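Think of the structure tokens as a kind of shorthand, similar to the way a musician reads notation: each symbol stands for something richer, in this case the local conformation of the backbone. In the example below we present two proteins back to back. Begin with the first one, reading the sequence and then the tokens, and try to describe in your own words what changes along the chain.
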Amino acid sequence: MKHPLPASPEHLCVLRLSALGDVCNLVPTVRALQRQWPQARITWIIGKAEHSLLAGLSGVEFVVYDKTTRLAGMREIWRRLDDTRFDALLHMQQSIRASILSLGIKSRVRIGYDKERAKDWQYLFTQRRLPPHPRAHVLESFMDFARLLGVEDTTPEWNLPIPDGAYQEARRLSGDAPYLLMSPCANPRLRNFRNWSAEGYAAVIEHAWRQHGLATVLSGGASTQEREMGARLRGLCAEGTVIDTIGATSLKGLLALIDRARGVIAPDSGPVHMANALNTPTIGLYATTNPQRAAPYRFQDRVVNRYPDAVRAYLHKEPEEIPWGQRVRHPDAMSLIRVEDVIERLDALLAEPPNEA
């Protein structure tokens, strides 16, 4: 017998720890739940960095898990929520770590992905599963949880909070002139291969300056790979065309920089989804990741998409022959993106009036 779903939930738990782009794609589901049941409490168990990005999200109580604390951190969350019994646990993180964490959360029903989408045996830790949704965008996969509960209005909405101090931080770094924001590096994980070449980025930076009078603000984290990319771009570009803020911003400050930018260029990474949430026009660079699954949702038509070419060149298959969302883990895949592809998208973006967020 299926575990019943709550008809009018009073308290829901969202379990999604990471990553920055994914939590941005999850916010519309939270907003949909809030529209359907405005009096319901929503508790979101979230990662530490992800919380610093979304802190202040209206109507959400955050419980922060620092993955470096491992089991001790889980036990602390279990103690904190020991007296709480949720109407439903929305298990949206497909990882063993999150599934173990879910074991100490009391809920009348635990909802997870269908077997086709579940990874790391997540389906073993849930009682109700989503209906299959083949070839779904990440945002739509999250929204399937709301649909299962009976939510009717699934219009994507974000309204991310950005404090005044973040805008002050952004202005100190960028100045008051209009600019393009470029986040050249994805998360430096093993065999990620999502980054485009420094020479390609430099050519686009030069074009933005010469043809549109826009300096480019570089953003990113403090990793060695990202700092080296910033230094490389400063060396390749003319003086005054680049403002390097890599490793120098808070996540809220990055949101403010993105919100004030004329446009954003980045590979498949958190900033393209932050920009999407803020309605800042975004050019995503995709060759190793399927953009039909993971492109910035509102700007899918602006993506430079060389994923099908990469599948054919490095997996020796047609895109429809491989599992949905399979990555092309080849170090040369992003080289399929041409400078003229990106410049064409940039010229089209800048020919349009700025979006109103």
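Once you have a description of the first chain, move to the second and do the same.
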Amino acid sequence: MTLSLGRLGLGCAQLGNLYREVDDATAAETVAAAWDAGVRYFDTAPHYGLGLSERRLGAAVRAFPRAQYVLSTKVGRRLVPDPEGAGRRDSEGFAVPADHRRVWDFTAEGVRRSLDESLARLGLDWVDLVLIHDPEDHLAAAVDEAYPALADLRSQGVVRAIGVGSKSGEALHRFARDTDVDFVMIAGRYTLLEQPALDTLLPECERRGVRAILAGVFNSGLLAEDRPHEGLPYEYGAAPSTVLDRARALAAACARHGTSLPGAAIAFAAAHPAVASVVVGAQDADQVRRNAALADADPPPKELWADLVAEGLLRPDAPVPGAVK
């Protein structure tokens, strides 16, 4: 069964208080704004806020007809209660109490338990798509144990589709080449800033019929504003000066052609023929509406892409909006 995700999906790490706290009302308004903008694909994970993202997303989407949206979550990190950590903050970027520990678990039993626990947090009877989350340091177990467990759940009809999500192009390529996954979620490895997924991963996806979901198309935030500046995150940390300079050069070219950097980033990401959806996070409803408007806008002029290639800011083999596929 082929899932239709829609051109734009909502990444829900921010619902788990990524970088800063968001209250319950703002989280609910964010999801509602995405729905109103036509978004019908929502992606979450236990990792995001130690389950907070799943709880908030599940509460929000229960207002919508279940058959009308696609929801994905992830396996590979199970959450184990840690009452002693309740007085500390989470150490992995989420502004939540550390009242649970993340435990890597790519066993078949771990996959099934993780999915059951996610369904309980979401308050849903099923999820459509399950992704193996960040398997790059546990690749043998992920391929040999987690993948067959998900394939079995798919064959039973428990889930509609399976895949893997990572920022490691090598790990994703292994799954695209050697397994029968439906989707790969590529985090930050195919963006306007950098395109290493063009080397082997995306060609393999096209060859094998694996659909790509692009996450991190703003490179954690560096491309999310018209004028990149110090303090914006890159790879969830501070951007090196060389990377910031490249982002500023991209922004300057966009400005010369009357378009915005985040708008060009979304349009570029969506143009590859293997891409099924571009997933973008948002801190609030206004960001959702902005991102949806950018995704719906006319693509930047073709002269922009030619200039970026001429300036060495874009690979010449990268598909661009408006090109013949």
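Compare your description with these statements about the second chain. The mean pLDDT is 96.
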